[in-house]
Amino acid sequence: MKNGVVIVGAGHAGVQAAASLREEGYDGPVILVGDENELPYHKPPLSKTFIKDQQAKPQPLRGEAFYTGSAIDFRPGIRVERIDVGGRRLEISGGGVLPFDRLILATGARPRLLPLPGSELSGVVSLRSLGDARLIRELSAQSEEVVILGGGFIGLEIAATLTAAGRKVTVVEAVDRLLGRAVAPVIAGHVRQRLEATGVRILTGTTIERLEDENGRVSAAITSSGERLPAQMVVIGIGVVPNVELAEAAGIAIGNGIRVDQQMRTSVPEILAIGDAASYRHWFTGGDVRLESVQNATDQARLAARTIVGHTDNYSAVPWFWSDIGDMKLQMVGLIAGGDSHVVLGDVVENKFSIYHYAGSRLLGIESVNRPGDHMLGRKMLGAGFSPSPQIVATGPDGLKAALAAFQQAEPARAAG
Q1: pTM of structure
Q2: Fewest C-beta atoms under 10 Å: which of 56, 63, 199, 296?
């Protein structure tokens, strides 16, 4: 393939796809295109250590030597305007074209906008990129009071970080609890209690009517009930929107993201999509999902590379996620939607516990707070297809390990029989 593979998007998914192509033995051209003028970097630290420490530097996903040493043509600061499907080429902003034999779309997602009077004011920010994090860090140094709109992971991570740095933080969430899309109510309640104990004010079931300004900079958020929340910075964290516009304009199938099959191919077989922008039929739940996580991005990238070199594996990675919020390391494995019962291990009061979620007798997933061993064991169990009974879970980690070992030992015998 003389034009090789072009990857659009230089985040976790795009960089892993480039690396995996080489690891899989692909020897054609690999071109990685990013729209930021930065060496690709880790995104999770941006909401935590980076915005807290004025001296913190971004953590590169790979050093510069990786790209040259792996013959990966990394091109920063390039914006793709259009995909010419028939001509197999990209049209670049400012002129120029980039031909491809295969194309991987790792276009990610962007913060959801809030149609709110005053949202255009200085001091109103969202976090997605390194540039956003630098701005938040700069503004937080000038702010005593911060309002965060949205009680999801990003909003709560920032709330914990800025509170620890001495800011007065208020979180405003429109629905009646935190982390509504992400975790079970008992986890959400625990997170709220721990954050409030550190001084974070949390308003659930509350919306913001408008933002006020002083000399063009935000000065307060006004709730729908009329309460004035003083703020020199307002962070909007109400979720993200997948970047599907390039694919959609090219006639590629869209459905809550860029639709892909089990090998990460879009409706145009020469074009693949991975990461936050990709929507697919999940092997475990049977439903259509679009997952926003580093694990999903990198696992899909590895599979896309295998697809390009001729393998036909189906995507079957076990989903897992994490978030560091104050003194809580939240780790989740599996997808718990549809659960009807659960078992708790550990001690909620001690801030170290796990919740095992079931649908009938089937283990769907595990949510852990400061119990990383449970999380790692859960990944092994779900990866092996092992669903321990609630009674076995109640015996604790040692009983679970023994049951998993027995299950794995029995599996070859069943296959042979």
Answers
A1: 0.94
A2: 63
